[in-house]
Each structure stands twice: as C-alpha cells, then as structure tokens.
Amino acid sequence: MDRYTPEAEPTSNMTEATGMLKDIQVERVAKPDVDELLEFYRRQKFTTPNRREKLQHMLDNTFCFVSARRNGELIGVARGVTDGCWGRLAECKLDPSCQGPACVTKLGGRIEHDESGVAKRMASLVINALLDFGIERIDAVAYGTEVDFCEELGFKPLPGVVAMELVCVAEAPDSGAAASTAAT
In angstroms, how far is CA 17 from the centroid of its own chain? Predict the structure, then answer.
C-alpha cells in the first residue's frame, strides 16, 4: 500500500456543516506539551499515565503524534508506535463535545460518532506516517464503539485473536505492611 486515503478524506482545516465544529486544525506535530496532554487526558477522564514523567516517557517512545485543535485548545490526539516492521495506531481520542449525537458514553475520549471526520483525519495522518516509514502491517486495538470507527478506517478483525493485557506495576506494594503481616 503506497498511500492510505480513506473515502472522502477531510481537509486539515475542518468545518462541520451544522456549525458545531469550526476551524479545527489537524496536524502532525513533533511532540506535544506534556502538561497540556495530561490536562487533555484528565478532561476526558482517560486513565493513562497520570504522572508527568511517565507521560513524557510514553511520548519519547511515540513514533508519530497528531493533534487536533479548536481555537488553540487541544481537542484530539492520535499516536502511532512502531518497531520498524509493524506499527500500531496506539490511540485516537477526540473530545466527546466534538463528536456527533451518537456519542453517548463519553468515556476517555473514545471515538463513538466521528460525524465531523476529525478523528478519521487524525488516524489517517498516523497511518500515512507509518506507511511512509515502510511499515508492513498496522494493528489497532478497539473497544466497543471504536470497532466501527476502526472498520471505517479499513481495519479488519483478526480471526481467532483475543486482545489481552498484562498490568504491570512499576512500584512494589508497601513492603512494610507485608513484613508486619508475615511476622504475626
């Protein structure tokens, strides 16, 4: 695949017909401001690294970052990561207030109703950056309403594949409590 071009790809300066979304700038950026991104995640009630240092580490290991802004405010993000052969659309989040009326759960900036095409544009920029880098396969993990969004982008379910996670805790549990329990 040379270039990824979704049907009716929106322009980077997006204007929604009903007037709900005007002057949204979607662009690939080097790295966002960590504090601004942390605030975006908090507004979406998205549970991602909540410590500035962890978020900076995540960004340092991100291959491609795309932002969507309205009047200068960060309203959407998309990230791509890669090992050089395979890539992953690591996230695509859009403030629910910038989605259509079918956005009902409003959880974590999850894409529920991309009426304006902003999320599609962000994801397209990430996908093209990965393709330009020579990536041979791009994966995405979708939850709930995101499945429809990913399928609209051209992703297909992988037969027999089950998404799994291993929750890793960087800090050990309180060793003092364990020691006192063992001593009794």
Answer: 25
Cα separations (Å) of 107 from 2, 34, 69, 99, 161? Answer: 34, 21, 19, 12, 25
Whether the CB-CB separation of 64 and 80 falls below 8 Å is answered with: yes
80 strand-pairing partners = 64, 89
Angstrom distance (rounded) from CA 84 to CA 4? 18
Angle at 56 between CA 50 and CA 57, to 5 degrees: 100
What pLDDT, in 10s, does the model give residues 68-102? 999 999 999 999 999 999 999 999 988 878 877 66
User: Is the Cβ–Cβ distance between 10 and 119 less than 8 Å?
Assistant: no
Q: Any residues with CB less than 8 A from the CB of 90 and at least 6 apart, and which?
A: 62, 79, 80, 81
Say if CB 115 and CB 16 are below 8 A apart.
yes
Nearest CA to 66 among 81, 79, 82? 79
Structural domains in the chain, sorted by start: 13-183 (3.40.630.30)
Tokens of 94: 């859009």
For 111-122, how does the pLDDT look when each residue is reduced to its tens digit (9 = 90+)? 666 778 899 999
